[in-house]
Amino acid sequence: KEKVIVKGVEKKYISKKGETQALKDINFSIFENEFISIVGPSGCGKTTLLSIISGLIPPDKGEVYINGKKVKGICPHIGYMLQEDYLLQWRTVYDNIKLGLEIKGRVNKKTEERINKLLAISGLTDFKDFYPKELSGGMRQRVALARTLAPDPDILLLDEPFSSLDYQTKLMMEEELADILNKDQKTVILVTHDIAEAISLSNRVIILSKRPGKIKKIVDIEFEKG
Ligand code: ADP
Ligand code: ADP
């Protein structure tokens, strides 16, 4: 079943520097439980594409459909982890993760258990009362990922979620993510610069060309997930 359909999407930015055609004629579909990576050089439109799929910004042309419905704003089925972590500085790690549930109206008596589980998975249990400024970049990224996972969205959009992690932590987090996904069955779109990461995690890789961002190639990865 098609979970996400991207149809004829185009996007142009107009600024003082002039016009930038960020995306041109983007077409693809994602099926339920697929893990897709989007790779391509810096500035090719990866972040723009995720923002359009999430409903955060509208395309100039074309449409996105989630579960068969046209996206017209922020979509409740989606968890979007932005490239910058946007943690609230006045809230602890625990309360930043809780925010993920609050904004979806999903706080209930299971909340504490859920957050504690996410803290454990992310190796953050000992840091749950820390504030963002007391954490390393990699730790903040793990908080942001935990916050995105908290409300258990069925579609995850992840923009360079592991980019500030050191090599060991990155491998650990990639493995944790793969585990979570094997258990929970989610549809994932991952944006990354790292081809090795794309190949090891996903079952399809979409390669965008420099500019304007167009689909250069879609590669099926021919091995069993997990
Ligand atoms: P990347 O996704 O490659 O890590 P960024 O998302 O930070 O990098 O930015 C990608 C490009 O978009 C950069 O060249 C940056 O200058 C440009 N960019 C991002 N935001 C704006 C903006 N508000 N106005 C103009 N250019 C921007
Ligand atoms: P990527 O994530 O692949 O690095 P982006 O989607 O961030 O690419 O950017 C695609 C192109 O659009 C880049 O050329 C960038 O400079 C430009 N761009 C992105 N955001 C803005 C913005 N808000 N205003 C003007 N130009 C932008």
UniProtKB/TrEMBL annotation:
CDD domains: ABC_NrtD_SsuB_transporters. The keyword Transport applies. Keywords: ATP-binding, Nucleotide-binding, Transport. One of its GO terms (molecular function) is ATP binding. Pfam families: ABC_tran. The keyword Cell division does not apply. PROSITE patterns: ABC_TRANSPORTER_1, ABC_TRANSPORTER_2. It comes from the Bacteria. InterPro entries: AAA+_ATPase, ABC_transporter-like_ATP-bd, ABC_transporter-like_CS, ABC_transporter_ATP-bind, P-loop_NTPase. Residues 4-226 form the ABC transporter domain. This is ABC transporter related. It comes from Halothermothrix orenii (strain H 168 / OCM 544 / DSM 9562).
